[in-house]
From TrEMBL:
<feature type="binding site">
    <location>
        <position position="278"/>
    </location>
    <ligand>
        <name>NAD(+)</name>
    </ligand>
</feature>
<dbReference type="GO" id="GO:0050660">
    <property type="term" value="F:flavin adenine dinucleotide binding"/>
</dbReference>
<feature type="domain" description="FAD/NAD(P)-binding">
    <location>
        <begin position="5"/>
        <end position="334"/>
    </location>
</feature>
<keyword id="KW-0670">Pyruvate</keyword>
<keyword id="KW-0520">NAD</keyword>
<dbReference type="InterPro" id="IPR004099">
    <property type="entry name" value="Pyr_nucl-diS_OxRdtase_dimer"/>
</dbReference>
<dbReference type="InterPro" id="IPR023753">
    <property type="entry name" value="FAD/NAD-binding_dom"/>
</dbReference>
<dbReference type="GO" id="GO:0005737">
    <property type="term" value="C:cytoplasm"/>
</dbReference>
<feature type="binding site">
    <location>
        <position position="211"/>
    </location>
    <ligand>
        <name>NAD(+)</name>
    </ligand>
</feature>
<dbReference type="InterPro" id="IPR036188">
    <property type="entry name" value="FAD/NAD-bd_sf"/>
</dbReference>
<feature type="binding site">
    <location>
        <position position="58"/>
    </location>
    <ligand>
        <name>FAD</name>
    </ligand>
</feature>
<feature type="binding site">
    <location>
        <position position="122"/>
    </location>
    <ligand>
        <name>FAD</name>
    </ligand>
</feature>
<dbReference type="GO" id="GO:0006103">
    <property type="term" value="P:2-oxoglutarate metabolic process"/>
</dbReference>
<keyword id="KW-0285">Flavoprotein</keyword>
<feature type="binding site">
    <location>
        <position position="319"/>
    </location>
    <ligand>
        <name>FAD</name>
    </ligand>
</feature>
<feature type="binding site">
    <location>
        <begin position="151"/>
        <end position="153"/>
    </location>
    <ligand>
        <name>FAD</name>
    </ligand>
</feature>
<feature type="active site" description="Proton acceptor">
    <location>
        <position position="451"/>
    </location>
</feature>
Amino acid sequence: MSENYDVIVIGGGPAGYPAAIRAAQLGLKTVCIDAWLNKDQSPAFGGTCLNAGCIPSKALLESSELVHRAQHEFEKHGISTGEVAFDLAKMQARKTKISRDLTGGIKALFQANKVTGLFGFGKLLGDGKVEFKGHDGKTQELVGKHVIIATGSAPVNLKIAAFDNDKIVDSWGALDFTEVPKRLGVIGAGVIGTELGSVWARLGAKTVIIEALPTFLPMVDQAIAKETLKHLTKQGLDIRLGAKVAGAKVEGDAVVVEYEQGGEKKTETFDKLVVAVGRKPYTDGVNAKEIGVAFDERGFVKVDGHYKTNVSGVYAIGDVIGGAMLAHKAIEEGVALAEQIAGHHTQVNYNAIPSVIYTAPEVSWVGLSEEAAKAAGFEVKTGTGSFVSSGRAKAMEQAAGTVKVIADVKTDRILGVHMVGPFASELIAESVLALEYSATVEDLALTMHGHPTLAETFHDAILSVDGRAIHGINKPRK
């Protein structure tokens, strides 16, 4: 016998679970199906983000940064600890507990909002019908007026460096090492590669990051990207740009990687190799193509401006539709779609999506870089603020980094803010709000920031745009 719902969500990650919760809050009978199994075969909501990505990586980044600070910074504060040691097993246990606490929280939120949560697989059958197959193999037919595909993405597996889940691993595998590799190789110097490289480098691994592109972090304003590269290199990360991997193979207890850089063929040997070259949409087993859902040439589900596919009553959100593969972007799409289904008028501002790299110092940005703004035809003016002159940053022993503001000469509107520095992940929120409200440089120049705070550095950057910086050096006026 079929069970009827207003909304059926397939996928319980950052796109799916918020969509389910918001739909239920709006009075729609909702079910959320998720197939995730942890390595111990325990089911969990939250998708890659909570179980094998955003959250566990931040837990290890925090732990490893504390080790690094204890080893290199505490003495400057007058704190003596003796030789600093760490217990990797305890770090891993803490990381796992944090993830489990949060995924359990989703289950509790489902109960509080009257969302039916099911662990297993959802398969589209057409005409609003979905086959649910539990992990025990039992099946049930569900019928929904609205069906949402929110199945997320999976790591790209390179044929020339295929995962064996032992020596050559994806980002999830890199979060579960039981001992620190003496030599670690990472293919890909993007967000995931630099974060994972930072974790293990801080804990003692000699880490080499191999990046095919000649430019470091091309999506970031290049002044900020170059400064970030300088900081990471100083910390011991060996980042090799313009290095194209030709192949990787396991030989005994090692991984041998062959690559070409500057026209020269090179070889490196590692204990572990992490492949972090991006993610691809994951729709395996959903049966979307079979019922006629259209996909683009890269495997993303095609949707219109309201997340509708070409099949009536079927929608898609999150990583499966492309764009920025970020949890917060997926969350907002889930909420917006649920509200649209309920008859509300909502939208996501894709020009104000923040991005963060949780290295130390952190990197964050929103809106256009100077390079992108000029390419789009804007006449730009820029300003910078340095954490070197921040009293709060100096007190924290983290006085490194820069905030850069990019604005339109004609309208004074802020086009983008890119920064590297302490707690850049938190500081970027003010810039997101500025873009959301189409703020001008003058608008923010007139706002007051607490002293001493890290946020003052952003204010310095704003003032610097028009040569008004008090705590920084203004550019000579032409």
